[in-house]
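User: Please predict the structure of the protein below. I'd like the answer in structure-token form so I can feed it into my own downstream comparison script.

Assistant: Understood. Taking the following sequence of 84 residues as input:
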Amino acid sequence: MKINVESHVHLELKFETKSELFAVMNSLIPDNIDCPDGLVVEMYDKHNCLVFDISCKREIFVIMSTVDEILRHIVMAKQVISNA
């Protein structure tokens, strides 16, 4: 049985520099295109923070896995930047 719930996550991640923030942000843009119905991911910069506002009107695991995937991609992008 699937139970849909409305959930929201606001996530702010602080970066040392604007250039690092924008490099990570640009690497994530393709991931936020064509989200499934009921899932909205907004991403923007605010001062030195990368901000995500995520809304979901599906099963709770959808928003949980979305946040997990975003964080994993950020870690990977930061590793690539630091090794460049």
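That's the full token string. The helical segments are 18-28, 60-83.
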